[in-house]
UniProtKB/TrEMBL annotation:
Entries under InterPro entries matching the protein: Aldolase_TIM, NADH_flavin_oxidoreductase, OxRdtase_FMN_N
Pfam families for this protein: Oxidored_FMN
Protein species of origin: Halodesulfovibrio aestuarii
Protein name per UniProt: 2,4-dienoyl-CoA reductase
A GO term for molecular function: FMN binding
Record bears the keyword Lipoprotein: no
Length: 374
């Protein structure tokens, strides 16, 4: 295949960042940070494997902006200045290999890991966490602290040399919880109508933009829908995207589902998506977003075939293709496709890569590793 014959291999500019092709490694919890959240050689090596495999833009796994907002063990941290040096080393190595890397900033909200942080989990309203306990409701001061934590984390991301940053407001984490009536039962200025529920996200965006400037890429990850009763729905997601676009947002990544959803509606759906018609879970949602914004759109969820991805790009539905699990199995997927081997991604969406993550073994595909050992 000749590079240039397909949009997949075209460059794209997002504010001040040039991405060499249209493949994005969507933010993925790698489980390769140290216990304290520092960059490790294993994490750096995993990033370089993606760059060398052809990924145009890497979005880091969700980096926690505050100790109280930590979601996982061995999750990458950016809540203090002491993390900048290690992050800068990783970013520099990625740049040396010709890659672009974006910092995803996140606060787990009511899904924070109390057993790790030693602090109560705070959400927009009390709701049952993954361990069954109720999280505590954030006070207005707690919300102020969260906003400031995002702002400080953004300053650190710039200092570390990241090419841009992404605000994580999807999958039921903190900012997603505020957007969703499923979690947000508040009756004050942060609850009720969408104009109130979006307020924490707007404040976070404004705080970040103040410190990074107008020419630095700031992106958003958001659910098209939560797929639960009283969850965020597409029409409200579109309004959120439109609102932030008028404020200068540079790009949006569309996903869907919550951490606690059943396997058929979660953001990491299980099943064999082995035909073009079964791929791309949020295709129609992306079309609706495209009709309502001129922002560059990234889409994650179920893309497994070159022809499907190229079709989405050439039809103008999206501008970049985001992948997660397929790149755990095959970090060199785009290089394979560029060579003319257009077989669909080897990933079978079994989620065994997450089973090893939960065991603190770091992310890898057990099936691929077993095949190599045979």
């Amino acid at each position: 295949m000749k590079i240039g014959e397909n949009m997949f291999f075209d460059k794209i500019k997002i504010n001040g960042m040039t991405v060499p092709n249209r493949l994005v490694r969507s933010a993925t919890w790698e489980g390769l940070a140290s216990a304290e959240g520092f960059v490790t050689p294993a994490l750096e090596d995993a990033m370089l494997e993606l760059v060398d495999g052809g990924v145009g833009m890497i979005i880091t796994g969700h980096m926690f902006v505050a100790e109280q907002g930590r979601a996982r063990e061995r999750q990458l941290a950016i809540f203090a200045d002491e993390y900048i040096s290690g992050l800068r080393s990783m970013v520099n190595r990625i740049h040396d290999h010709g890659g672009a890397v974006v910092a995803q900033l996140a606060h787990a909200g009511g899904y924070a890991a109390q057993a790790i942080t030693g602090m109560p989990a705070l959400g927009p309203s009390p709701f049952a966490m993954r361990d069954g306990e109720l999280c505590q409701e954030m006070t207005e001061h707690d919300i102020d602290v969260m906003v400031y934590s995002f702002q400080q984390a953004a300053e650190r991301a710039v200092a570390a040399g990241f090419d841009g940053l992404q605000i994580h407001a999807a999958h039921g984490y903190g900012l997603s919880q505020f957007l969703s009536p499923h979690f947000n039962k508040r009756t004050d200025m942060y609850g009720g109508v969408l104009e109130n529920r979006i307020r924490p996200l707007v404040r976070v965006y404004e705080a970040i933009r103040r410190v990074v400037g107008e020419k630095y890429p700031v992106m958003l990850k958001i659910n098209c829908e939560d797929f639960v009763e009283d969850g965020l729905e597409l029409q409200d997601s579109v309004r959120v995207i439109q609102g932030l676009a008028t404020m200068g947002l540079d790009a949006v990544e569309i996903s869907g589902g919550l951490l606690t959803n059943r396997p058929t509606t979660s953001s990491t759906r299980v099943g064999r998506f082995d035909s073009p018609t079964k791929e791309v879970w949020y295709r129609e949602a992306a079309r609706v977003v495209r009709e309502n914004t001129k922002l560059p759109i990234m889409l994650v969820g179920g893309v497994r075939s070159f022809s499907v991805a190229e079709g989405l790009l050439s039809e103008g539905v999206i501008d970049l293709v985001s992948m997660s699990r397929p790149l755990i199995r095959e970090p060199n997927l785009l290089t394979r496709w560029a060579s003319g081997d257009l077989r669909r991604a080897d990933c079978i969406s079994c989620n065994k890569c997450f089973s090893v993550l939960i065991k603190n073994e770091g992310f890898f595909c057990p099936l691929a590793r077993a095949e190599k050992s045979e």
